[in-house]
Design brief:
Layout: E1 2-7, H1 10-23, E2 30-35, H2 42-51, E3 59-60, H3 68-86, E4 90-94, H4 98-109, E5 114-117, H5 129-140, E6 143-146, H6 149-157, E7 165-167, H7 171-185, H8 188-191, E8 200-202, H9 207-210, H10 213-227, E9 231-235, H11 241-248, E10 253-254, E11 267-271, H12 276-284, E12 288-291, H13 294-303, E13 307-309, H14 318-321, E14 325-327, H15 332-346, H16 360-369
Parallel strand pairs: 1-2, 1-4, 2-3, 4-5, 5-6, 6-7, 8-9, 8-12, 9-11, 10-11, 12-13, 13-14
């Protein structure tokens, strides 16, 4: 059997790494890793590959940035010849980035069995490009591997056959469980003069938050109130850097190492993006995480760290109903109040959702190798699916 794994952006790396590791126990399976290059900071990608012990990609498509249409089209154009050459038994896509949708479309058009990890998540907000990617990918996938019961319910409501749905848990928690000891051992918070639970970690990158100066300005009001009481560490996503600098101005400071015996004073500290282990070590000791990221809502729940999500909706409601997550939208009062409550030790406490146990990857592998019927039988696609003489536009 041959399985072709697709990664394109940082969140994908943490989901694919445990699956590739679990597949090492199956020498009869050949895994090929395709990196689309959607995340175009190659140095940062390399750091994630190193931290997660990912093998070098078998294919690097180097598609770079662009509009959603441009990026998706470039990925499809580059990915299709790889499918035709390799003829895999499965294409495995993860998450909801443009690479996920582009490779799902290519696989479906060539009749290659498609598995989607993290299927069934819904924010019910179609202004989010990720929501469109999720809906379209799930409609194409032969095997939908879900992280939680709410995702199963979403798929059933959309009419997906039960035979295509398997609840396997959250594979990103596998990566967290494996690498947390090493992340803590780096001692990044202490090196920065940060006392455990006495600082906040901030991430912002969603266009709805960082591209509108009015909304970003509202968020900044809340952030300043938090930063007046405690250090707020902000590794800035590349796409948000210009907007953040314009709105936060002089309050954006360089993040440098503190003397080991120096306590970092309150303030907003802007840093470059951090490698996976350094960032995990930082979030694990934080008093609160402020974010609009989906993955961080899950990681903070697994870590037991209060999370304040700067969004009106989440595609991960189990982190709210069961975990440590609290939605505050962009209201500066709610943002500041929730963050300061958490820093005072009164943040939301939660529990670990079912199957978020660090053993999701073996369950995914079991489903990929299980005998199936129909197009998801795990057999090579028929040669006609790869026939280069298929009429254009058919």
């Amino acid at each position: 059997m041959k399985i072709l794994h697709v990664v394109g952006a940082r969140p994908n790396f943490m989901k694919v790494a445990p699956i590739l590791k679990a597949l090492r126990a199956h020498p009869e399976v050949r895994s090929l890793l395709v990196h689309t290059g959607q995340h175009y900071d190659f140095a940062m990608s390399q750091a994630f590959f190193r931290d997660l012990d990912l093998p070098a990609p078998d294919e690097f498509l180097n598609v770079g940035s662009g509009t959603h249409a441009e990026q998706t089209a470039r990925i499809m154009t580059a990915f299709e010849p790889i499918l035709a050459r390799e003829r895999p038994n499965w294409v495995l896509v993860v998450g909801d980035v443009n690479s996920t949708l582009a490779c799902a479309l290519s696989a479906a058009k060539l009749h290659v069995p498609l598995a989607h990890v993290e299927a069934g998540l819904r924010s019910f907000d179609r202004t989010m490009p990720e929501e469109i990617n999720r809906l379209a990918t799930d409609s194409l996938a032969d095997l939908l591997l879900t992280p939680s019961a709410d995702a199963d319910a979403n798929l059933r409501r959309e009419g997906v056959a039960a035979a295509r749905i398997r609840c396997v848990g959250n594979v990103m928690i596998d990566a967290l469980c494996e690498h947390l000891p090493a992340a803590r051992a780096l001692g990044r918070p202490a090196a920065l003069g940060l006392a455990p639970r006495a600082y906040a970690v901030l991430t912002l990158h969603r266009p709805s938050n960082v591209d509108d100066p009015t909304i970003l300005g509202r968020i900044a009001i809340g952030l300043r109130r938090v930063a007046a009481q405690a250090p707020v560490i902000f590794p800035v996503h590349p796409r948000a850097r210009t907007a953040v600098a314009a709105v936060l101005g002089a309050e954006a400071l360089s993040l440098g190492a503190a003397a080991p015996d120096a306590a970092r004073p309150p303030g907003l500290y802007v840093a470059d993006p951090l490698p996976y282990l350094e960032f995990l070590g930082l979030t694990a000791e934080a008093g609160v995480v402020l974010t609009d990221s989906g993955g961080l809502q899950e990681e903070t729940t697994a870590l037991g760290v209060p999370c304040v999500t700067i969004r009106e909706h989440t595609e991960r409601p189990i982190t709210v109903t069961t975990g440590t997550n609290l939605l505050v939208g962009t209201d500066p009062e709610r943002l500041a109040a929730a963050a300061l409550e958490a820093l005072a030790g009164r943040g939301k406490r939660g529990a670990l959702p079912p199957l978020w146990d660090g053993r999701t990857a073996p369950r995914i592998v079991h489903e990929l190798l299980a005998p199936r019927t129909g197009r998801a039988a795990g057999l090579p696609a028929p040669p006609s699916a790869f026939d280069s003489t298929t009429p254009k536009g058919s």
